[in-house]
C-alpha cells in the first residue's frame, strides 16, 4: 500500500481514507479496517453527516444497524469494539445478537464520539458490500404465453443443438421465474425492506406515473444474445426485450429507478445503464438447479465453477426467435431464494402502473 496515496472510500457524500490494520479477521473476510475521525476526512468540511447529542455525562450518537452486521463492529472476541472504544475514548453499546435496535456511542468528548461513529459507519459500509444480495427489483415475464414459447425454445434447442459442447436441459431457466432484473439489494431487516417499499411508491409518484400514463407497457421478447466474448464459450444466453411501440420508456423507467435506489444507499451502482434482458440459459444452473437466476446482474458469480457451452448454433438458428408479447404492469421487490403460489419469486413490495 502506498501510504501517500491511500484508497479513498465515498460514504454518504463524504470521502475517507482506507487504512490497513493487523487484526485477525473473521473467516473469509479481508484483513483490513477503516480509520476515520474528525481529522481524517479527505476534504476540509467538518464531519457533520450524523447527529451527536449532548447529554449530562458528555455526548452520544445513535446509529440504526441491522442485527446481522453487529458482529463486524464487535469483532473476533470483541477485539474491534475494544479497539474502537480505546482509541476514541468512548463506550459503544450494541444490542444482543438477533435483536434489532441501535448502536449507541457515548463519550465525554464530542470529537471522540464523532470519530467512533465515523469509523463504525465506514466499517458497516465495507461489510455491507460483502453481503450476498437478498432482494432484487424485477419485471415478471412469466405470463403463460411467454412460458409456452420459452418451453418451445428449450425443446427446439435440445432437439437441434444437444450435440454441441455443454448444451443440456440443466442450463435452462425455470419458466415460472422468467424476469427482467433491474438491480439487486441487500435488505437485512424489516425496516430496510419497508424503506425500499416506501421508495418504490415515491418513484411511482415522482416519475413512473408520468411515463406510463397509468397504463401497462406492451413489451416484445424476441431474439437471443450472449454475454461472453466468444460464442463458443457461452455462460449466459438471454432473450432481448424491447418496447413494442419503439419508445425507450421501459429503459427510462429502469434507469431512473436504479438511480433513485443507488442515491438512497439501498443499491450499489453497477452499470451506467440497466441492461434489459431475460436470462434463458445460464451455466450456473447446471451446477445447482436451485441457484439464484439473477447472478448475471451482479458480476459476483464464481466463474471457476462454470462449464461454458458452445452457443454458436443456438445463436445462428434462434437469432430471431419470438418469445411473445407481454404487458408489464408493475415493478416487484422480489425476495431471493423464494417462490409464491405461481412459482415466481415471493414479493416483498411492488410499484403498480395502474
Please describe the structure with a list of short key phrases separated by commas or semicolons:
354 residues; alpha+beta; Ribosomal Protein S8, Chain: A, domain 1; Cyclic Phosphodiesterase, Chain: A; 2 domains; four-stranded antiparallel sheet; 8 helices; 14 strands
Short account of what is shown:
This protein has helices at residues 70-74, 79-88, 110-128, 144-161, 190-212, 249-264, 284-287, 312-317, and strands at residues 7-11, 14-18, 53-55, 58-65, 90-93, 101-107, 135-140, 179-185, 217-226, 236-243, 277-282, 322-328, 330-335, 347-352.
Question: What features would you describe in this structure?
Answer:
There is one protein chain. By secondary structure, the protein is α+β, with helices and mostly antiparallel strands. The protein folds into two domains: 7-128, 2-Layer Sandwich (Ribosomal Protein S8, Chain: A, domain 1); 135-352, Cyclic Phosphodiesterase, Chain: A (Alpha-Beta Complex). It is 29% helix and 25% strand. It has eight helices and 14 strands. The protein has helices at residues 70-74, 79-88, 110-128, 144-161, 190-212, 249-264, 284-287, 312-317, and strands spanning 7-11, 14-18, 53-55, 58-65, 90-93, 101-107, 135-140, 179-185, 217-226, 236-243, 277-282, 322-328, 330-335, 347-352. Strands 3-4-6-5 form a four-stranded antiparallel sheet, with helices on one face. It has a four-stranded antiparallel sheet with strand order 8-7-13-14, with helices on one face. Helix 2 packs antiparallel against helix 3. It is elongated and about 75 Å long. The model is unreliable at 21-47 and 292-304 (pLDDT under 50).
